[in-house]
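so im writing up the methods section and need the Chaperone protein DnaJ record in one place, dumping it here so i stop losing it
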Amino acid sequence: RGSDLRVKVKLTLKEVLTGVEKKFKLKKYVPCPHCQGSGADGHGADTCSTCRGSGTIISQQRTILGTMQTQSVCPTCHGEGKIIKNKCKECSGDGVIYGEEVISVQIPAGVSEGMQLSMSGKGNAGKRNGIPGDLLIQVEEEQHPELLRDENDLIYNLLLSFPVAALGGTVEIPTIDSKVKVKIDPGTQPGKVLRLRGKGLPSVQGGGYGYSSSSMGDLLVNVSVYVPEALSKDEKTALERLEASDNFKPNDTVKEKIFKKFKNFFE
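--- predicted struct ---
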C-alpha cells in the first residue's frame, strides 16, 4: 500500500460559510507510465512458484498438543505473489516514479480548525500496482478582523456610545459576507447579548470526505458602552447636571442584575 499524504488548507470564515474548491499541486509517487505500474519490463511478472501466487506460505509443525499450522509472508516474492525477472528500467522495478499531480478538493461548508478531511486513493501510489494511500487535508482558519467563532456561532463585540445606549438607535453589525442593521432599545445595558439567528456558520456532519452541511448557527452581539476618557468643559457640565437626576442612579433592581452576572461569571 502506498503511504498517505498530508496537506494543510487555510480558510477564511467566508469560505467556511459557503464551502470552497481548492486545488493542490502535489509532489508524490505516481504509477510508472513505462510499465503501467507493474514494475516489469517486457512480458511482465511471473507467478511466484513458492506460494503459487497467494503471497503467503503455510507451514505445519507437530507439537505435544497436535499439529500446529501457521501462515506467513512468502519469503520469495515478499507477499506480492509475483516475481519480476526483467525489471522496468524507468522505475527500477518499483512500479512508481516521483512526479506531480494536481488534485481538486471540494471543502464543505462548516468545517472547523483542526478538522481532517480524507480523500481515499489520492495519496502515494502503491508499488507494483499496489493500493494507493489517502490524501489527508487538515483545516486551518484565518482569523477574522471583527468576528470570533464559537463552534457554529459567531461573536461580535459591539461598542456603543453612552447616548445611543441610553436613547436607543440603529447600528450596523458586520456579518461574514455583508452588514445588517440592528435596532438598539433605549436603556440598553452593558453586557446585554443580542442574538441574530441564522447569521452564524453551518454545522458539518459526516466523516472522511463525505461531510455535509446542515443547520446554521447564530451571531451573538455582546454590548459594551464606551466611556470617554477626556471631556470638554461643556460636556462635564452636562454630565454633572444629569448626575443629580435620580433616573441616572442605579436602583436596587439594576444592582441585583449586575450582582447575578458577576456571580455567574465565577461559577
